[in-house]
């Protein structure tokens, strides 16, 4: 009874789809979050009669044959890269990336990670870091007597001081781009890690080499579409129910066969 295993594979696939949808909905308010999508492919086919086989009885050629599929399997959970809407916050250290690119940060292990979450903060020493305290690359320090800072679209950071008319250049942010951003490994906390699938990072100033620009006083909202996610959730739920009905039908067929006298 192949239907039991095929339906079980279908239920497992729909369960994974629901898990991906639930993660999207849980992160619908996460800064810079991109929705994920579960992707599936059919499993191996059992060739009971291959297409093009010659019928031994009359010499005719089978146009289609008999191929029985064995279910479904998950192939990937890919990131749907799309620009989230920009929400105004008014914060001096709130940065939104309009376009492609990631901010590079340094983890405590010394390894580089990448993020689109531009909710930046200052340490007690004036170093610009992420909300989790990871320093942004390159290091930019804001002096203690700075009245305010201004960050232009190219990432240049200017500090305004009480005894000076002209602002002072404190540093410049850079952005990292990847050949295949979908190949980045998500490690949580809005961070990604470079992999062989993503390719090495190409670092440049904002607005150069196809990278986006920075917008001070804005944060990028999540790109999750709640209406689409709920619609997909209903489809996954109905698919799960249909596969469970197949198992029920197969069980009834096996029960009838056992009761034959």
> What do the pLDDT scores average to?
92
The helix fraction, in percent, is: 10-25%
Domain count, please report it: 2
Q: Enumerate how many helices there are, as a single number.
A: 2
Q: What are the segments in which pLDDT stays under 50 over at least 5 consecutive residues?
A: none
> Which strand order do you get reading across the main beta sheet?
8-7-11
How much beta, percentage-wise? 25-35%
Radius of gyration: 27 Å
Number of strands: 20
Question: Biggest sheet, in brief?
Answer: 3 strands, antiparallel
The best one-word shape is elongated
Helix-strand sequence = HEEEEEEEEEEEEEEEEEEEEH
Q: How many angstroms does the end-to-end distance come to?
A: 20 Å
Structural class from helices and strands?
Answer: alpha+beta
């Amino acid at each position: 009874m192949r239907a039991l295993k095929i339906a079980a594979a279908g239920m497992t696939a729909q369960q994974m789809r629901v898990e991906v949808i639930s993660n999207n909905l849980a992160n619908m308010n996460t800064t810079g979050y991109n929705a994920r999508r579960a992707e599936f492919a059919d499993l191996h086919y059992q060739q009971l009669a291959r297409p093009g086989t010659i019928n031994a009885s009359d010499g005719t050629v089978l146009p289609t044959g008999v191929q029985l599929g064995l279910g479904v399997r998950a192939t990937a959970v890919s990131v749907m890269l799309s620009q989230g809407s920009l929400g105004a916050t008014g914060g001096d250290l709130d940065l939104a990336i309009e376009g492609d690119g990631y901010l590079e940060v340094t983890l405590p292990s010394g390894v580089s990670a990448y993020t689109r979450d531009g909710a930046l903060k200052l340490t007690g020493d004036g170093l610009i870091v992420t909300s989790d305290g990871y320093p942004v690359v390159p290091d930019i320090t804001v002096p203690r007597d700075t009245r305010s800072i201004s960050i232009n679209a190219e990432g240049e950071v200017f500090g305004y001081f009480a005894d000076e008319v002209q602002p002072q250049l404190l540093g410049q942010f850079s952005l990292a781009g990847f050949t295949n951003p979908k190949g980045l490994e998500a490690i949580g906390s809005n961070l990604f890690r470079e992999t062989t699938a993503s390719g090495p990072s190409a670092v440049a100033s904002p607005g150069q080499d196809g990278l986006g620009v920075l917008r001070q006083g804005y944060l990028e909202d999540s790109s999750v579409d709640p209406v689409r996610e709920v619609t997909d959730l209903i489809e996954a739920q109905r698919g799960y129910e249909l596969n469970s009905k197949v198992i029920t039908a197969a069980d009834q067929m096996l029960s009838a066969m056992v009761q034959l006298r």
